[in-house]
Amino acid sequence: MANRAREMKAADAPLLTVERLKTYYPIRKGIISRTVGHVKAVDGVNFHIYPGETLGLVGESGCGKSTIGRTIVRLEEPTEGRILFEGRDIAGYSGSHMKKVRSDLQIIFQDPYSSLNPRKRISDILAEPLKVHKIVPEGDIPKEVGKLLEIVGLPSGYKDRYPHEFSGGQRQRIGIARALSLKPKLIVCDEPVSALDVSIQAQVLNLLKDLQKEFHLTYLFIAHGLGAVRYISDRIAVMYLGKVVEIARKEEMFRNPQHPYTQALLSAYPVPNPHLRSKERIVIQGDVPSPANPPNGCRFHTRCPLAKAICREQEPELKGSEHAVACFALDGS
């Protein structure tokens, strides 16, 4: 998979480029609801994804990774920055303009239970995007719905059932079918297996890999489970408190993590035999600061064992090409 990503990188421009992306949520107070601050969920993020590859995005809960995914597909409004999709900056697109590119950008949600309308049959859920975007003629929609179900491994006869009649894994397959219905180029997978049993997780991950190969899909795969990210990703980006602190190819990231936070994160990755672990477990001290009041300088300096004076005063830039890291301790500052 990594070889494919490198081949894509050599041949193509990025399908998606995120530049200085910020997504803030206002903190309101009082009867007149005046703004007294902001939750800086995403605060100046940069990365790109090439056609046909999977970029895994990992980090602790609350670090902003799901907000990035929702902002890219414009379910959340960006505060600043650019979202370049096929060279077009869609960050400022209006609703009518977004509709023209909506079929190319889809999302698979984390919770298969709440992402489907419980009052609608599966046939109606899958037919709705086909009708809105006029993907196929009206008369061909029932046939297309049946085909979508079969693609994700469900019998076409299930189309007349309601969501409550399915298991969690089956519902997530329906969510995947809904995302595929518009024939997208990029799919944001927002923790698509975290709510599923372990055995079902493997089935869904294999399905996503098979679909990527068959339909030439590009994924932004968001998760906090390192096993799933390692299995499906070509490259991995690590987030901490609204910032991307490291990006590298999957093999390089697990073999040679550079950022102190990444090292701690990967040291907690479970191995079949703990006695074979090559490095000792790194335990991070302290609590994660609030995104409403993040520390000055490097976001991680309050918990970092390598923090220096400059880390408290200045914010490190993400430096490097194949393996990018944002850390003063690594660049000799």
UniProtKB/TrEMBL annotation:
Biological classification of the source: Bacteria, Bacillati, Bacillota, Bacilli, Bacillales
InterPro entries, sorted: AAA+_ATPase, ABC_transp_ATP-bind, ABC_transporter-like_ATP-bd, ABC_transporter-like_CS, Oligopep_ABC_C, P-loop_NTPase
Keywords tagged on the record: ATP-binding, Nucleotide-binding, Transport
Family classification: Belongs to the ABC transporter superfamily.
Chain's gene name: oppF_3
Family annotation (Pfam families): ABC_tran (PF00005), oligo_HPY (PF08352)
An example molecular function term from Gene Ontology annotations: ATP binding
The organism's place on the tree of life at top rank: Bacteria
This protein's record includes keyword ATP-binding: yes
SUPFAM superfamilies reported for this sequence: P-loop containing nucleoside triphosphate hydrolases
Identification of the protein by name: Oligopeptide transport ATP-binding protein OppF
Keyword Acyltransferase: no
NCBIfam families xrefs: oligo_HPY (TIGR01727), PRK11308.1 (NF008453)
Domain called ABC transporter: residue spans: 27-266
